[in-house]
Amino acid sequence: MTTGTPLRVAVAGLGAVGTAVAAALGTGIPGLALAAVSARDAAAARGRLAGLVARPVPVVPLEELEPLADLVVEAAPAALLPAIVEPFLRAGKGAVVLSAGALLRADHLIGLARDHGGQITVPTGALIGLDAVAAAAEGTIHAVRMITRKPVGGLLGAPYLVTNNIAIEGITEPMRVFRGTPREAAVGFPANLNVAVALSLAGIGPDRTELEIWADPTLTRNTHRIEVEADSASFAMSIENVPSENPRTGRITALSVVACLRKMGAPLRVGT
């Protein structure tokens, strides 16, 4: 819980998620303050922020964020994750990471956080039940399975589909396009399956978690179903996410980040 001086928060990336998070911080979250923003188009970012926040906020290059903030929210393309997060972790600060899949390709960041006293937080995002999975992982989890179904438009252009010549344009019925692990999906679907990686990190890891991805022309929402078998409980959960302006991202993703940030300065925290 923060007291006294507000925790200074930087937002890296002003897409659908970053903009919503910046707007919430600009409106006011107790104990937190929007300190700086980084975006590819600085002029456009300033114009967008002008209608969202009450006071001017610096828009700076990625490498200038760390001195201005105590915590960074990474809401940018996955390839930028190390450049965004490393300076904060080296300074013993925190990072809220949306590109969970990229952590599997940059796992040195976890060691960096450990060595310098920083912390990486992966919010629940567009998923459900990570508290239950994390609790079950304190005992023994036997199996975790996730089935993701997405509208065709949310999967178009995924590297896995391109590499394997899987055509989904014009399909008229659901089509399974992937079966494997979150580690494999993080490479083949970098803009789609951060939720699967988050699930695996909360549970039995990215190599033991089972994952299926379906392209479904009958859907307008991204859907995820999780099935868990553990020594403490057996449970299944599902969620249907309303897409944001970016069809690959659900509206609830940004709200999950805001809820995560709100906990940091709250006198009452609910959930693990």
Question: Can you walk me through this structure?
Answer:
Helices cover 32% and strands 23% of the residues. With 272 residues, the protein is α/β, with parallel strands linked by helices. The protein has a five-stranded parallel β-sheet with strand order 2-1-3-4-5, sandwiched between helices. Helix 3 (81-90) runs parallel beside helix 5 (108-116) and helix 8 runs antiparallel to helix 9 (194-202). It starts with 6 loop residues before the first strand and ends in an 8-residue tail after the last helix. The model has no long low-confidence stretch (mean pLDDT 93).
Just name the CATH architecture of the largest domain. Answer: 3-Layer(aba) Sandwich
The CATH class label of the largest domain is: Alpha Beta
Query: Termini, distance in Å?
Result: 15 Å
Range of strand content: 15-25%
Class from helix and strand fractions: alpha/beta
Describe the oligomeric state of these chains in a short phrase. Answer: single chain
Mean pLDDT: 93
Give the radius of gyration: 19 Å
CATH topology of the largest domain: Rossmann fold
Q: How many independent structural domains?
A: 2
